[in-house]
């Protein structure tokens, strides 16, 4: 047993996986052999999910059966909707609301929430993936005092979410950008939330518990929560008297971390940031308001010059979603709507050859303490 301490499990290999490959030196991300740029441009989210869950790209008829299955599972039980309403009335954090409501779905699963065969768990994973957008959209609408909008089976996953959010069918361009964002967020090796899902599943717990653990883990600012923090920063810069460079320099001098920069695996720019940067620029050009993209670009150039630290996926998703009119506190829930595909794929892959995940800590506390009865303690 090695006594080397690997804080944050940095660089520790814990599993073999066929799902996604990351080259942190080259800035490359691949799902099951397919470059992320090709998938972003040419595959729908449903195709990416099929690829992750079934091992290969679907044929046209496999895809349409798969799409129909997902679309038919979008409705959530009235009791869950009522809980979402209460969470919205309590002005809950949207990630907390998503975590609670997703967990609650298990009680209403047609097969119960307990672990089953791979096929049963995959079907549950499909139902969770289909229902999470309904939860997020209903939460947002009820928080705003609007009625929830029922899902439509004739729209794809991306367009249906925007429809449920805004109450109108999105234009094709927006639906396409959103679909692409879902594709590129779907998987990323053993990131923290995926690992959390795997730890939970490794105890032979159920897939609802694994996804609930993962949602809670994605929420943090060092992980998925960074996309919201990026937009908060851009808005703070916009409202400050300082230039973008002055603001960023001050933040670094104050020892702050700039959200949307740095990565445990990439030493260069995250390929997803490049893809989303193009979308952010295109949205700015289309609206005639380029400031969010321009601020981001200035920060990227400054960070490169001063620190050599490059943007990660959360940096340009922020201005992309913002320019699509999506509320800032829904950015991380939207990340979850996509990453649930990766969580499920990794859980199923890991459980096929399961081993309880249980690392060690080095004990550095006292030993040999003599027990003092409570009436003699000072
Ligand atoms: C989807 C995702 O989860 S992508 C990541 C989203 N998170 C963020 O964007 C939050 C900001 N980024 C960070 O906090 C980090 O880069 C992390 C947590 C993502 C990765 O952290 P680690 O792999 O642990 O890198 P580590 O903390 O060792 O950083 C290495 C050095 O770069 C610096 N650094 C890393 N990220 C940043 C940043 N965003 N801003 C300023 N400095 C940074 C650290 O201060 C450290 O400097 P030091 O060696 O002088 O102390
Ligand atoms: O891989 C990571 O550590 C974080 C990340 O970029 C992701 O989860 O998409």
Give your account of this protein's structure:
There is one protein chain. This protein is mainly α and 378 residues long. The protein folds into two domains: 207 residues, Orthogonal Bundle (Citrate Synthase, domain 1); 98 residues, Cytochrome p450-Terp, domain 2, CATH 1.10.230.10. The chain is built from 16 helices and three strands. It has a three-stranded antiparallel β-sheet. Strand 1 and strand 2 form a beta hairpin. It is globular and about 70 Å long. The model has no long low-confidence stretch (mean pLDDT 97). The structure holds acetyl coenzyme *A and oxaloacetate ion. The site of oxaloacetate ion has 7 residues, from loops.
Task: Describe this structure in a few short sentences.
With 378 residues, the protein is mostly helical.
Key phrases:
378 residues, mainly alpha, Citrate Synthase, domain 1, Cytochrome p450-Terp, domain 2, 2 domains, three-stranded antiparallel β-sheet, 16 helices, 3 strands, binds acetyl coenzyme *A, binds oxaloacetate ion
Topology:
Layout (H helix, E strand, L loop, with lengths): L19 E4 L4 E4 L2 E2 H7 L2 H10 L5 H12 L6 H12 L4 H12 L12 H26 L13 H10 L5 H14 L6 H11 L4 H12 L7 H14 L4 H10 L17 H17 L3 H17 L5 H11 L7 H21 L27
Antiparallel strand pairs: 1-2, 2-3
Helix pairs in contact: 1-8, 2-8, 2-16, 4-5, 4-6, 5-6, 5-10, 6-7, 6-16, 7-8, 8-16, 9-10, 9-16, 10-16, 11-15, 12-14, 13-14, 13-15
The site of oxaloacetate ion has 7 residues, from loops.
């Amino acid at each position: 047993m090695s006594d080397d301490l690997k804080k944050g499990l940095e660089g520790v290999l814990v599993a073999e996986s066929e799902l996604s490959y990351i080259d942190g030196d080259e800035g490359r991300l691949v799902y099951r052999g397919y470059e992320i740029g090709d998938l972003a441009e040419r595959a729908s989210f449903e195709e990416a999910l099929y690829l992750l869950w079934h091992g290969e790209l679907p044929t046209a008829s496999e895809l349409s059966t798969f799409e129909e299955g997902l679309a038919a599972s979008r409705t959530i039980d009235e009791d869950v909707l009522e809980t979402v309403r209460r969470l919205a009335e309590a002005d809950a954090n949207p990630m907390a609301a998503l975590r609670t409501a997703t967990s609650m779905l298990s009680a209403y699963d047609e097969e119960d929430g307990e672990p089953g065969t791979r096929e049963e768990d995959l079907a549950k994973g499909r139902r969770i993936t289909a229902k999470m957008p309904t939860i997020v959209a209903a939460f947002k609408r009820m928080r705003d005092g609007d009625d929830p909008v029922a899902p439509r089976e004739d729209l794809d996953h991306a367009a249906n979410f925007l429809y449920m959010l805004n109450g109108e069918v999105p234009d094709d361009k927006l639906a396409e950008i959103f679909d692409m964002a879902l594709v590129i967020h779907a998987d990323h090796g053993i990131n923290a939330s995926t690992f959390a899902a795997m730890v939970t599943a490794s105890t032979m717990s159920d897939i609802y518990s694994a996804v609930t653990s993962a949602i809670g883990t994605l929420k943090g600012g060092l992980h998925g929560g960074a996309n919201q923090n990026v937009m908060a920063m851009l808005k703070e810069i916009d409202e400050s008297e300082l230039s973008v460079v002055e603001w960023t320099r001050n933040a670094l001098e104050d020892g702050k971390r700039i959200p949307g920069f740095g990565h445990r695996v990439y030493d260069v720019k995250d390929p997803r940031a490049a893809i989303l940067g193009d979308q952010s620029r295109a949205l700015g050009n289309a609206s005639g308001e380029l400031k969010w993209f321009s601020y981001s670009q200035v920060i990227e150039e400054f960070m490169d010059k001063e620190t050599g630290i490059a943007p990660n996926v959360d940096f340009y998703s922020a201005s992309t979603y913002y320019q699509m009119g999506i509320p800032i506190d829904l950015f991380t829930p939207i990340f979850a709507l996509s990453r649930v595909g990766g969580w499920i794929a990794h859980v199923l892959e890991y459980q096929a050859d399961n081993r309880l995940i249980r690392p060690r800590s080095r004990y550095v506390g006292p030993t040999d303490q003599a027990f003092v009865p409570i009436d003699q303690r000072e």
